[in-house]
Amino acid sequence: MRKALLFLAIVVCGTVFAQQAQSKVYCEIVGTSKMFSKKLTIEVDFGQESTLFSRETLVDENGKPIVFNSMVDAMNYMGTLGWEFEQAYVVTVESGSSATNVYHWLLSRYVSQGEDFSLTTRSQYRKDAKGQDTIPAE
Predict the structure, then answer these.
(1) Residue 19: in which H helix or E strand, if any?
(2) Per-residue pLDDT tens for 50-74?
(3) Mean pLDDT in the chain?
(4) CA 106/CA 81 separation, integer angstroms
(5) Per DSSP, what are the bridge partners of residue 58?
(6) Cβ-defined contacts of 18-24 (< 8 Å, 24+)
(7) What is the average pLDDT across 86-95?
(8) Residue 76: what pLDDT?
(9) Cβ atoms within 10 Å, residue 24
(10) What would the mean pLDDT of 119-134 be, rounded to a whole number?
(11) What is the DSSP letter of 114?
(12) What are phi and psi of 44, to 5 degrees?
């Protein structure tokens, strides 16, 4: 009986300490309709440094933009990386006689201290490539 109680106490303490070592981080995916297409341009914001002209689109390991068919397609991709849906809202941007919907989805996930939770964006890929003295061809 004592061994069972000792084991239970160790498991409970281990669980409590493991949860304290993690923190919740957030990410926003922003989807904008492409002109003359049903697909979306997806940009990601996880608090990274960006400039006025940088496009924070997600890229694969070769630096090619990842194209999503819809916000759900983007969410399915993010879900495979451990991100969970929190909240969504839509902003309608009017330009002259036309209007475009911009979709904002807030996501979250738990990360351990020191874990790199960022995703590879176009500007990050280029920055990493310059550090390796190879600039990707587009």
Answers:
(1) helix 2-20
(2) 665 666 788 888 888 888 888 999 9
(3) 78
(4) 15
(5) 121
(6) 21/112, 21/113, 22/110, 22/111, 22/112, 22/113, 23/110, 23/111, 23/113, 24/108, 24/109, 24/110
(7) 90
(8) 94
(9) 10
(10) 72
(11) T
(12) -125, 140
For residues 18 and 48, the answer to whether their CB atoms sit within 8 Å is no
Q: From CA 76, how far away is CA 78, in angstroms rounded?
A: 5
Ramachandran quadrant class, 38 (left: phi over 0; alpha: psi -120 to 50; beta: rest): alpha
Classify each residue of 76-104 as buried b or exposed e, where b means 16 or more C-beta atoms within 10 Å of its C-beta: ebbeeeebeeeeeeeeeeeeeeeeeebbe
Choice among 28-37, 51-60, 94-103 with the minimum mean pLDDT: 51-60
State residue 110 phi and psi, 5-degree precision.
-95, 135
**Higher model confidence: residue 134 or residue 104?**
104
Best CA proximity match to 86, nearest among 31, 48, 29, 42: 29
Q: Report residue 86: phi and psi, to 5°.
A: -115, -55
Could you tell me which of 116, 118, 124, 132 has the C-alpha nearest to residue 63?
124
